[in-house]
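Hello again, I could really use a second opinion on something today. I've dropped the whole record in just underneath, so have a look.
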Amino acid sequence: MTTRKGIILAGGTGTRLHPLTLVTSKQLLPVYNKPMIYYPLSVLMLAGIRDILIITTPDDQDQFRRLLGTGEQWGLRFDYAPQPRPEGLAQAFVIGREFLGGGPAALVLGDNLFFGHNLQELLQRASARETGATIFAQQVEDPNRYGVIAFDAAGRPAGIEEKPKTPKSNWAVTGLYFYDRRVTEIAASVKPSQRGELEITDVIQAYLDLGELHVERMGRGFAWLDAGTYDALLDAANLVQVVERRQRLSIAAVEEIAFRNGWIGEAALRELARKLGNTPYAAYLNRVADESRPR
């Protein structure tokens, strides 16, 4: 079985968040107590993925490198690649073709936040599939703003449309995708849409035509936010704050995930906490280390 690699697409100009994003990438903005990119990164880590390509704008790449480094501190390995112009989500597989090396891939958008009970189980089930594609869908109030997946009477995926005027369902496709090794070839064959972009829906449609599209429906108990607007950014921060203050659990603490996955040890976790100084985040990591010791 070929090891699945991950891609975080963190490019774009973030125009919907101007002036916040005039001098920095949207994916580096804070969502409560962490940079936004920690949230999609945590999703790949929960899926067991350790080899990750981070696609950014050329101007922002140095900032991402300063924040994330090589990934070694978390038991990961990061590569970086520029996206000179945002030309569609499927462009990530064109840019990442050499990185993927003909193997399976997972793509997550850099401004997407996922949270919910059994999320890790859902992710690992998708990652374990060796053939076909897996997408994640959630019901939304305004499906015409998203890619929408329709189902037949038996609940099987029957069609996908990008921002339809008359949606056939209210199940929106989230910014998280798992594909088998054929994805780079399929993405390379996609023709630009009327918007001049390589649409991810065309890649999904190719797997649907093959009869190899799986849809994981994220129902009650799951939260999915696209933090690309002022209100969504605030909603995401409020969600994280409420959960962390009420449950004393952290969302997307990548250090904790690395530790619980067995990728780093207790000493490394405590060293990471030390570097964060006298902060509640550091105190949380030390508590995770304390509570992991046999009683």
The two ends are 38 Å apart (CA to CA). The chain is about 35% helix and 25% strand.
